[in-house]
Request: fold
Amino acid sequence: MSRKPEDIVSAAVVKHGSGREAVIGILTDVNRELGYIPEEAIKAIAKAVDVSNAEIYSVISFYSFFSIEPRGRNIVRLCNTISCEMNGSSDILDAIEKELGIKAGETTADDRITLETTSCIGLCDESPAMLVNDTPHTRLTPEETRRILAGLE
Amino acid sequence: MSEKLILTAAEQPEAGAALKKSLEMTKADVVFEVRESNMRGRGGAGFPTGVKWNLAGAASGANKMVICNADEGEPGTFKDRLLLEKYASILLEGMTIGGYGIGSSQGIIYLRAEYPYLVPVLMKAREELVSRNLLGEGILGTDFNFDVEIRMGAGAYICGEETSLIESLEGKRGEPRNKPPYPVNSGYLDRPTVVNNVETFVSVPHIILNGFEWFQDLGIGNCTGTKLFSISGDVENPGVYEFQMGSTIGELLEAAGAKDVQAVQVGGASGTTIKADELDRKLSFEDLPPGGSVIVFNSSRNMMDVLENFLEFFVHESCGQCAPCREGNVRLLDTARAIRGGKIMSREELKPFFMLAEVMKLGSKCGLGQTSPNCFVDIITKFIDFPDGKGGM
Reply:
C-alpha cells in the first residue's frame, strides 16, 4: 500500500526542511516513491515552501528525471549520446522496443517498465550503457539487455 | 610531456596528512600555496583556483560555502566518476582544506542524478573521515569545523555551469545567472561561494603536501599539473588517462590505442573537432582546452552523424532561457539535416548559418550557447566538401 502524495511530501519536508532550497530534495523523494509527481504533491510542496503551484511545476519541467506522468515500476534510461551511439545503442534501443512493444518515452501496459533515452550518463568507456533505476548496466548486447529486462519485476 | 600518475597513482597520501599540514599553516598561506601552483579549474572553464579562493576568502559575508561540482555531463566525460568512486576521501579532504582556506564550515557535493550509485560511496567516505576527526566539529583538535552534505541533481546538463548549479541547489530551475555578481561574492543563498570541479579538489591535497613549485614543474608554462582525460570512441582501451598538461593529443591516443583516426573531439560536444593531421596539438589552455573528454572517430564514421548527434544533444539540453541558444541550436540542427538531405548544396547557402553560429557565440548568456556552435563550424569546415569548395567561410 503506497503512501498518499501529501504524506510523502510531509515526510520529505521533515527531512529536507521547508526552505526553497529543499525543493529538489522533496521532489526527488516524491518522484522516487511514486515514479512521478502528481498534482496533489505539487500543491502540497507549494504550500509547504510557500511558493505558487506554477513555480513548483516549472522546476519539475526543467529536469529530465522528474515526471508529471505516472511511470512504470522500473525506469530504463538508455544513453543515446555519441560514444554509446557509436557502440550500438540504437541496436539496443530497437531490441528493447521490440521486446517490450513500446517506444522510447512510453510505459508498458502492465506498468512494469518505462523506457527513456537519455543524454550522456558518463559510462562512455563501457558503452553502450543504460541505467535501470539506480543501477548502471554496461557493454550491453541485445541478448544481455533482454535478460536484464526479464529480471525486472 | 608524458603520462604521469598523481591523482590516480596506486600510492596515495595518507588520509588527513595534507589537512593536518594545512591546519598548521595560516589560511592565507594555504590559499597562497594553491594560487602559486597556478592550477586552473579542472571543470573546463580553467579559472585559476587559487584566485577564486582568494576572492571568496576576502569577500564579506557570513556562512561561506564550498561547493563541489560533481555534475560532469559533457558527452564523453567520465573522469569524475572514477575520482568519486575511488578517491572520495581525498576529494573530501580537498574540500575541507578549501573550507579552511576561505573560512567556511559548510560544503556541498552536487552529484549528478545519473550517478546515484555513488551516493553510498561518498557517504561511507564521509563517515570514515568524521570518525577519524578529519571532518566535522573541532577537526584534529583545532577549533575548525567543516562538514559536507551530498545533494543530488535531477538530470540537466546545464547544471554543470556553476551559477545554474547554484540555482538548482536553491531549489529552482537550473538557469544560469547574469554575472556579476560572481559566486565568490554572492553565490548559494547569496553567500560567498567557491564552486570547484571534483578533480580540482582532488588535486589540492597533493599541492599542499608537495608544494606549489612541485606542481609548477608538472605541465607546460602556465598550464601546470596533471590532467585526467576520459577517452572513448574508436580506441582499443577506452578509459581514464592521466597526463601532464601540454601533452599532445597524439600521445594520448597512442596510450589508448587508436589505430585508425579520422577525427578527434577534444573537450566534449562543446569542444573542438580536430583532424588526423592535427594530432601534435597540445592539451593546454593556450591550444586545445583540456576539458575531460576525448572521443575518437575512425575512418568508417560519418562526421555528419556525429554532428547531428551533438546538435540533438544541445537542442535537448539548452535551458531555453536565452534566444540565441534556444533557437540557434534548433536552426543549426535543421541546417545539418538540410545538408544531409541535399537541400543545402553550396557554401553560399551556408553563410547565414555561419553568421548564426557567431551570434550564438557572442550573444548567448552562458557557456552552453557560446560553445555549442563549435561542432557545427568545425565539422562543416573540416570535413564537408561542396561543389563550390570546402565547407565553411
